[in-house]
């Protein structure tokens, strides 16, 4: 049997990034936390943590952390049921960790799940990451579900198709005009001479656009980085460059500067999936149902 106190210590160390911070959060001595984690490692016969400036879990530690979070949620569901149901007034709130790309959070995800969160007294602990990397948080045990481009289900998880987010390459009309030659055709050379506005260094949408529509790979061009939705779109509106913006955002731009397609009719479609634990507590099942319903209402269906 796994010792609950040892699992709690392991979870705290990874969550806070150090043994000292974990000890403070648990109101224990540093030695007590260290002994509990070591005892758990001795029992299992393998390392659960990579010690260093920033402590992180090994693959075995990640599997245990996912187990800890599942148990915590199941216990919360059980207590809520014993107390008459989690949806009654004054019922206990339950926190669920999710990893989502910023564009989904800002467009369809939060509006789509808001009613379910309120009805079932669910709290979200959102980790923002690029859609190509959100599954790392699920793999490490930090979250119970993620919006991701990874179609293949990870171990112990289910991958359910959500739909397609379409991105268009846009800019101010004056900037888009600079990308055109004397006959009005879009010139890749002119486009690459202008800065791109990019969300962060994990964002590969502009590279996908250049590869898909111009056959350019590993293209070199100047870049602005603006890792916040408002700042990202404001940079494009100020004429600082061109960027990949979801169609969802472009349809809600009343009263803001006009943005036009740099390449009319060209877009990049990103297929999204909801990866979550195979064995979900009731609270997580409710969130999964809300996420799938929100996607059906807001995203284009996946091909085929």
Descriptive report:
With 304 residues, the chain is an alpha/beta fold. The protein has a domain at 165-270: Periplasmic binding protein-like II (D-Maltodextrin-Binding Protein, domain 2), CATH 3.40.190. It is built from 12 helices and 11 strands. The strands form 3 sheets. Strands 3, 4, 5, 6, 9, 10 and 11 form a 7-stranded mixed β-sheet that branches. Strands 1-2 form a two-stranded antiparallel ribbon. β1 (49-50) and β2 (56-57) form a beta hairpin. α1 packs across α3. The longest helix has 24 residues, at 59-82. It is elongated and about 75 Å long.
Strand content: 15-25%
Tally of helical segments: 12
Structural class: alpha/beta
Number of DSSP E strands: 11
CATH architecture of the domain at 165-270: 3-Layer(aba) Sandwich
Features:
single chain; 304 residues; alpha/beta; D-Maltodextrin-Binding Protein, domain 2; 7-stranded mixed beta sheet; two-stranded antiparallel ribbon; 44% helix
Q: In summary, what is this structure?
A:
By secondary structure, this protein is of the alpha/beta class. It contains twelve helices and eleven strands.
Write the layout of secondary structure elements.
Elements: H1 4-16, H2 19-26, H3 30-44, E1 49-50, E2 56-57, H4 59-82, E3 94-100, H5 102-120, E4 122-128, H6 135-139, E5 145-148, E6 157-171, H7 173-178, H8 188-192, E7 196-198, H9 205-214, E8 223-225, H10 229-237, E9 243-246, H11 247-250, E10 260-261, E11 267-277, H12 282-298
Parallel strand pairs: 3-4, 3-5, 7-8
Antiparallel strand pairs: 1-2, 5-11, 6-9, 6-10, 6-11
Helix pairs in contact: 1-2, 1-3, 1-4, 2-3, 5-12
